[in-house]
Write a structure and sequence with these properties.
By secondary structure, this protein is mostly helical. It has 17 helices and three strands. The chain has three domains: 99 residues; 97 residues; 175 residues, Orthogonal Bundle (hpI Integrase, Chain A). A hairpin with a 5-residue loop joins strand 2 and strand 3. Helix 8 packs across helix 10, helix 11 packs antiparallel against helix 12 and helix 12 packs antiparallel against helix 14.
């Protein structure tokens, strides 16, 4: 039962709606309906909000006084009465966001901007506009740059001109062994990019990026990790395709195994990226690059099975969606990585495999995104996904597949 059906018969909702804060409750209920939440999740959210409204009323507060500090105090009070659920804090954050959208409460106060934040904001713009990095890649630089500024430039932006080669090298020597060799190389990579940015903007007179030493890490020093063809088939067979999650995971794993796509590339796929007429997919790769790849029949069949039967009905255009409400796309490729990891552990393969693609000596090597892909030579209208509706295009693709 979804939220809309539950609200028709819910005594809790009727009681809250007929109470002194009925307008607020109806606004929150609309949000739950739009998120397509299940009945138990809807009841939990309404019960939580009802308890919050009763709590602020006993303390002489009004709904217009709601803010993060008030909800945190309520959660602390509620934790003394009963156990908190993992989604309680997120449910109250959604309530505050909904109230701010309609102007019922004041906007959230902006956190104070530190000198480090000002420097990193300019560095982020440089990485995004000049270097073409994705937002998550930009964020990964933040911890390294923040610690570097605190140790080497404690006075903030005014101290950037005092960065010297000796101070940079001493910093690298202090922190090179904080983690693995891989983390040391990533630290040097972030610092090189940051020092190039400072010299590019004229904030430092010297080009200090070249003075950062390289962390020694021998290539091919360890045996490569791979999955055999039998292991890949075992993993694919471990998906319960009678369920919505099983069909979705099976289609995701097929893309990882047969096409060698990155997790982020799978997560960012949309319905409009698949051209069912030509059997091609548009892939968004690193560095804002885009390329079209042919879609094998078995991969297409797995996607079609998911779209026809188990994909939630929603306005979201992402290809793969969350099975739990709200039915939206994955926030990043980390979710795809966890799906692959869970599939490995489900069939008894422990540890983390960097790729689902089997070794070429075991079976025919699946196409990899690093392999050159010839662009589609057909007319632009043939590759336009809006030239035909997704349902009609998918049926055309299926009929062509069955004809073979």
């Amino acid at each position: 039962m979804i939220a809309e059906e539950y609200l028709r018969t819910s005594r809790l909702f009727r009681r809250l709606k007929n109470g002194p804060h009925g307008q607020l409750v109806e606004l929150y209920a609309t949000l739950l309906v739009n998120d397509e939440r299940a009945s138990h999740g809807t009841w939990r959210c309404l019960n939580l909000v009802g308890g919050l409204l009763s709590w602020i009323e006993r303390r002489g507060l009004r709904p217009t006084d709601l803010k993060e500090q008030v909800t945190e105090r309520y959660l602390k009070y509620r934790a003394g009465k009963q156990s908190l659920q993992p989604g309680d804090r997120a449910a109250l954050k959604r309530l505050l966001s909904a109230l701010r959208e309609v102007g019922m409460i004041a906007p959230a106060p902006l956190p104070p901007i530190t000198p480090e934040d000002q420097i990193f904001e300019g560095f982020s713009d440089y990485l995004r506009q000049e270097r073409g990095l994705a937002p998550r890649s930009i964020i990964s630089h933040l911890p390294v740059v923040r610690r570097f500024l605190r140790e080497v430039c404690p006075a903030g932006a005014g101290d950037l001109t005092n960065i010297s080669q000796e101070r940079v090298i001493r910093y690298i020597e202090r922190h090179a062994r904080d983690g693995s060799a891989g983390s040391g190389k990533r630290m040097c990579w972030s610092l090189r990019a940051f020092l190039r940015y400072l010299h590019h903007k004229g904030l430092t007179p010297l080009a200090l990026a070249d003075c950062i030493p390289s962390i020694r890490r021998w290539k091919l020093a360890s045996l490569p990790t791979y999955l055999s063809a039998a292991q890949v088939e075992k993993i694919l067979g471990g998906c319960d395709r009678a369920t919505a999650m099983g069909r979705r995971d099976y289609a995701i794993l097929m893309m990882l195994a047969k096409l060698g796509l990155r997790a982020g590339e799978v997560a960012s796929l949309t319905l409009d990226d698949i051209d069912w007429r030509s059997g091609e997919m548009l892939i968004r790769a690193k560095g804002r690059q885009r390329a079209r790849m042919p879609m094998p029949r078995d991969v297409g069949a797995a996607v079609v099975a998911y779209l026809r039967d188990r994909r939630p009905t929603t306005s979201c255009r992402r290809l793969f969606l969350r099975t739990l409400a709200p039915h939206v796309g994955f926030a990043s490729g980390c979710a795809i990585t966890m799906i692959a990891k869970a599939a490995l552990e489900r069939v008894g393969i422990r540890g983390y495999a960097p790729t689902m693609a089997p070794r070429s000596s075991d079976t025919a090597s699946p196409p990899s995104f690093s392999d050159p892909v010839r662009p589609c030579q057909r007319s632009a209208s043939c590759c336009d996904t809006r030239a035909m509706t997704p349902r009609a295009s998918m049926q055309r693709w299926m009929s062509r597949d069955s004809a073979h």
